[in-house]
Amino acid sequence: MTTPKNKVVFSGLQPSGTLHIGNYLGAIKQWITLQENNSAFYCIVDEHAITVPYDPASLPTTVLDTAALYLAAGLDPNQSTIFVQSHVPAHAQLAWLLATQTPLGELNRMTQFKEKSANHQDRSTLGLFAYPVLQAADILLYQTNIVPVGEDQIQHIELTRDIAKRFNNKFDAVFTLPEALVNKNTARIMSLTDPNKKMSKSDDTAKSYITLTDTADAIRKKISMAVTETEPNFSFTNSGPAVTNLLAIYQAFSEQSVQDIENQFASSGYQEFKSSLADLIIEHLSPIQERFQTIRPDTKHLEEVLADGAAKAAQVATKTLAIVHEKMGLA
Ligand code: TYM
User: Fold this and answer.
1) Does the CB atom of residue 203 touch ligand 1 within 6 A?
2) C-alpha 201 – ligand 1 centre gap (Å)
């Protein structure tokens, strides 16, 4: 994959608790690479997080935890615009305008809505249904070219393109059409306890995911308990889904070639492979955890970074919003 240059990059993540290695490998690791030669906007999407039941008292803390993890993982406020969605009102404003132009049928097809509304049944809200329209607004406000995400977000990016195309045809060519950027090796990191489900922080069992702040002990335990197929067979093409997932995690953290990894473990048993994998994850996460310990207590600094990010984001976002107002006859 050649790394894009001189593009507008936008992505976001929900501040729901701590981040897991699926978020890191599927999204954040790409964000870090992309911040260097592009104009990058990385958002903490608190207005998306409130579309399912949540605790208002702890949301400000989770937002700051997420900001600290962004920085600890390697996002640099001098290279990226890092901000909180609700600090830039243009997101919610554009979402309403786009909602008036989005057919219900398109939203009805969204698989994430179907999954999430099944989990929340009678508490499912209009906000949850409209979630992808707010996501489209996030992306389109910045005239984004590239949206680095995991596989589960591809459908939302396709919808964003459809919304933008329809708007451009009907009103005027206002929006850039964005493209999803997924790293195929890490686009879908699976649960450690059920390789048919994606790794998710809303999973009932914490054994199924590794968070960026898990202790070395917890990481070793979770990896040693991770399900595997009966016979050890470390092949990227012939292993079952559980081992393929562990190999994908190994490859993403080690950045070694498939061939090297297969050779390295050709005659290994599960214990040896799992212990190397746990060591590798710990080795990668411990510097992030150390930086997190230093960055997180400095609330004032975090708030400054976010205020600065919101001011920069708002400059771009309000321009796009003003054009949309004018084209829609609201000026
Ligand atoms: P969220 O918060 O669920 O996830 C953040 C990012 O992590 C990726 N991801 C994964 N990648 C690989 N394997 C996994 N198991 C895994 N789990 C999560 C997600 O694909 C995502 O890239 N709707 C978005 C947030 C959002 C957004 C946006 C993203 C709001 N506005 C605009 C991009 C652009 C979400 O809920 O992500």
Assistant:
1) no
2) 11
Q: Is the pTM of this model over 0.90?
A: yes
pLDDT of 158-217, one tens digit each?
A: 999 999 999 999 999 999 999 999 999 999 999 999 999 999 988 888 999 999 999 999
Sequence spans of domains, the chain: 8-187+298-327, 206-293
Task: Give the DSSP letter string of 226-240.
Answer: S---SS----TTTS-
Verify whether ligand 1 is closer than 6 Å to residue 212 (CB atom).
no
- Whether 135 is in the pocket of ligand 1, judged by its Cβ within 6 Å, is yes
CATH topology of domain 206-293: Tyrosyl-Transfer RNA Synthetase (1.10.240)
Residue 121, pLDDT score: 66
Topology given in CATH for the domain delimited by 8-187+298-327:
Rossmann fold (3.40.50)
Which residues are bridge partners to 90 per DSSP? none
DSSP 228-293: --SS----TTTS-HHHHHHHHHHHHHH---HHHHHHHHTT--HHHHHHHHHHHHHHHHHHHHHHHH
